[in-house]
Amino acid sequence: MTTRPTVRAANGLVASGHHLATSAGLAALREGGNAADAAVAAAAVCAVVMPHRTSIGGDMFALTYDARSRDVTAYNGSGAAPHALEPESLGAAFPPHGASVATVPGLIAGLADLIADHGLLSLDRALAPAIGYAENGFPVSDVLAAAIAGEGDRLARDEEAMRVFCPRGWPHAGQMLQQPDLAAALRAIARDGADAFYRGDLGERFATAIAAIGGAIDRADLAAHRTDRPQPLALNYRGLRLFGQPPVSQGHILLEELAIVEGLDVRSLEWGSPELIHLMVETKKLAFADRDAHAGDPARVDFDARRLLDAEFVASRRRAVSAKASERTEAGSLMTPANTTYLAVVDRDGNAVSLIESVFSAFGAATVVPGTGILLNNRLSGFSLDPRSPNALSPGKRPVHTLNTVLALEGSMPRFVFGTPGRHAQVQTNFQLAVGLIDFGMDVQQAIEEPRWYHDSGRTLKMERRYPEAVRRALAAKGHEVAVLGDWDEITGGAQAIAIEPNGSFAGGADPRREGQAAGY
Fold this sequence. Notes:
- By secondary structure, the protein is of the alpha+beta class.
- It has 17 helices and 20 strands.
- The two termini are about 25 Å apart.
């Protein structure tokens, strides 16, 4: 039994983090657009109606499948630290808010490049719904109202953020929220493309205004930004070809997790059993230890994530899976806080997009650049202040991102498209989704609604209350210090997933832990 029915359709399906975004994506499909057009339309709406999770001042990553070429393309729409940044000015810790913790926004270029490469509709058509919601307003959701109140102390430190998000005091659910400056910025991008921001008048006004409020991003940083299209990571798993985001995304964690358990007989274990959970948690610890030891911007450090998927290395990590809960996990030896939203789209021609976007923390830097309506990310906080770390802060360098997406092919055709927000929970929840969908043959909505576990550090294992007490006790006997979460805890993410059935129809699911919705036609 699930709380929501699986959404089934034959012509196209959109599953996103907000019903208005899903509707915008579906409208693009109905008007002759393809999966890329629908993904850009939905993502842009998310950047307007979900400012606690994303913004055009944030970043995006995507995987696309092109039905004509049968190629999978990875998009890294993340930005770098400003070149004029002086790391010592930050002190011993990153500030909790303010323009100084922003990296160059990459979402604008990422969406424009995605639709230019694969779309059938124009950028101005794709951005039209987002412009409408920014200009005319949209009803504040219960979740957004609670988020604004919950981040009130941070938002109150920025006069422009308060003017934008609290024009008549703290908003309540159902109150209309308009963002005319953001609408104007989106209109400029719709008219002139991404260059309006990175090399045009909008970018000049953005750079001038951000300097006035203490930020380091300048016109040269904007002009230097490009969307990367790195070779996606890929792994053969149970007869499927799974694609993940390459660095600076942490998609390699998920693929390493799956590579380790592929050599273990997980199907002989009962789903939700303490034995299976323990095995997956200890596998997760190994992959995260490898991330901490090795991962960084490959343009600045010697890091090739494909080495983590090498058969000999994976075999050594498989042997390191502990029979008891481990307190501290060492990294393998190689031979040479997030607020985010995810969406999946498929169309009747077989194209697919798996896309995630974010401002990092809730409301990012809690700072809106005056005159532009653009809410800044605080992605600089994703760096390490330890100079020995491969992810050490440095001007012009990109931080490691938790953002990752998944796309699985069966033969040469898409079989699953899924992902989730949730910072470090992302690759853990995607791990649980992948095993549920592939190893246990679950329906997408069932896989999304199954109880989840989440591990942060040490032997503490957080588990949703819906797990039976007997399972929690058995895990405690294995050395885990079990902490009980709520029945449907947002810390474990807010997944969306689409399965392409053998007959060509689509099945979509959305997570009741957040406010996402799937719809098709």
